[in-house]
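Quick question, first post here. What does this chain look like in 3D?
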Amino acid sequence: MSAETPVQSAGTFTRARLRFRDWRGDRPFWAGLFTLLSGLPIAYFPYATLKLGQMSIAMATTGGAGSLIIGVLLVTLGLTMWFQQATRIFAGVAAIVLSLVSLVVSNFGGFVMGFLLALIGGALALSWAPGEEGAPEAAQSDGPKEVPSADVAPGPVADAGEHGLPVPQTADAGASDNDNGRNRAG
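> Answer (accepted):
Ran it through. Tokens below.
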């Protein structure tokens, strides 16, 4: 290859993956996914019929309609978290409240699976915050950067003062410390 060789464009799969990653990074994706998935067992189990050979076991309860409503609302809240990020606080609180209601109404919250997924999704929605736009990753360092102050002359810095801030050491302060040390010893 030479310097003039044009760079091949990324494949369709790579471009789609990168676009999805960018889309996912701009919204509370995992909160929406957990909340969306929590609605499925809550709505499904009251209407499920299990066949064991000739015997069928129906899970139909009086809370079937309530379970269906809670499940559909949780799926809707999960989609809302994805497509309307501004309502994430409301959607997170609503998901947590609906998960608690599902314990009583819907077979212990879809046999605890839907309950736990909704709680985790709601908590993730409440804790998610949008990132700052245009913040380069190089600017985000491991620790705070020291900026020299205009009123403090550069020079050696003594141990931290009473508030944890560095105290500049002057020539006079160093000499008086040494004198005080001699006077105490002598």
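The first helix runs from residue 12 to 25.
The chain has two domains: 16-127, 149-185.
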